[in-house]
Design a protein that fits this description.
The protein is an all-alpha fold. The chain is built from twelve helices and two strands; from the N terminus they run ααααααβαααααβα. One of its GO terms (biological process) is heme A biosynthetic process.
């Protein structure tokens, strides 16, 4: 890719970040740093949902090179090459629409990268000036390193031709980035509330059982997202065409060995043969059945948290999203994989990551109303 095209891409990334940065700067909120964190959370959530749309519309190779599109900074400049590829294979991975979907995804990712650089830079400057805990630069710096790793996996997603393990890791890193940003945002909220005297840190935290349940919820949710990513990246969503049975059987014919061999090409076994349908069935079946574990653990965590001060609202939110996730997961089977429902299912997973992260933060760092604290004194 030529230097001029790289410069153009960099400028597009800066432009993608200009609007949210301008919104933060012109906001009436005096705490611009906290505002920037939550704007970045919102855009990262959007990026995950749009990434799901990119994957589900088979647009991951809409531009078969990286970081540009046929060496150009945008599909307009690569129009001739894209049209030639589409003419050669009208139903192939490269079309004009798919190229734009893929590049918009990349532009949004670059814009978020710029915002994270801004978060890190602001944190370091303010930390050196004030030494205030909310500007501790460790987490923003970790976010910067994390987004670089995420960018590398985004590149390998394209250059390794949608290799399932790479795409799945790319998804997990995106969810991890969202979780880290939410943790940072929760830290800013708590610091602002304590500074303005609206809350005080209570002496007693959450019960040990609730702490363990919240952590277990995060672990099983991570596993389920990995399994869901494995289903999506292997195109195994329709491997089971009924529910609760799978192709008429409680335990259908399954090939776990080939289905869960991680290092292999898309649609192939490690030996290079076509992946048998029984392997896709195994992938789908495991994700579907582990969902019952997720429902049990997250449901129990929400039930136990509902009466705990400060997290009852998050508990209700988790319960609601769990119900919607179950409904959209079943609907993808019964409605033969409609795109909108599938994207909503991915959005629900990201929303659960956000809520479970908030639950864990508020349990770990509880705070209570000042009036309540004064009443006990």
């Amino acid at each position: 890719m030529q230097l001029s095209s790289m410069v153009q891409l960099g400028l597009i990334g800066l432009l993608a970040a200009c609007l949210p940065l301008a919104m933060v700067w012109m906001s009436s909120d005096p705490n611009k740093y906290r505002k920037l964190v939550w704007v970045t959370v919102f855009l990262t959530f959007d990026l995950i949902v749009f990434g799901a749309f990119t994957r589900l519309t088979d647009s991951g190779l809409g531009c078969p090179d990286w970081p540009g599109c046929y060496g150009a900074a945008n599909p307009f400049l690569a129009h001739a090459e894209i049209v030639a590829a589409e003419t050669l294979m009208p139903t192939g991975p490269v079309t004009v629409v798919k190229a734009w979907i893929e590049m918009i995804h990349r532009y949004l990712a670059m814009g978020i990268g710029v915002l994270i650089v801004a978060l890190m830079g602001t944190a370091w400057v303010q930390w050196r000036k004030t030494r205030r805990a909310e500007f501790a630069p460790g987490l923003p710096t970790a976010l910067f390193v994390f987004v670089l790793i995420q960018g590398a996996f985004g590149a390998w997603t394209v250059t390794l031709k949608l290799q399932p393990v790479i795409v799945t890791i790319h998804l997990l890193l995106g969810m991890g980035l969202l979780s880290m940003l939410v943790w940072l945002g929760a830290r800013q909220n708590r610091a602002a509330a304590l500074a303005h005297g609206r809350f005080t840190a209570p002496a007693a935290g959450a019960p040990t059982m609730l702490c363990r349940l919240a952590l277990a919820a995060a672990v099983v949710l991570t596993i389920q997202i990995a399994l869901g990513g494995w289903v999506s990246t292997n195109y195994a969503t329709l491997a089971c065409l009924d529910f609760p049975l799978c192709n008429g059987n409680l335990v259908p014919e399954m090939d776990f060995e080939h289905g869960f061999t991680l290092w292999r090409e898309l649609g192939k076994t490690a030996a290079g043969h076509y992946l048998p349908f029984s392997a896709l069935t195994a992938i789908h079946w495991v994700h579907r059945n582990f969902a019952f574990v997720v429902l049990a653990v997250l449901g129990l965590a929400a039930w136990r948290a509902r009466a705990h001060p400060g997290v009852a609202r998050h508990a209700r939110g988790i319960a609601l999203v769990l119900a919607v996730q179950a409904a959209t997961g079943i609907a993808t089977v019964y409605l033969n994989f409609p795109l909108t429902i599938a994207v909503l299912h991915n959005a629900g997973a990201a929303l659960l990551v956000l809520m479970v992260t908030m639950l864990n933060y508020k349990i770990k760092y509880p705070s209570g109303p000042v009036l309540q604290a004064s009443h006990h004194q």
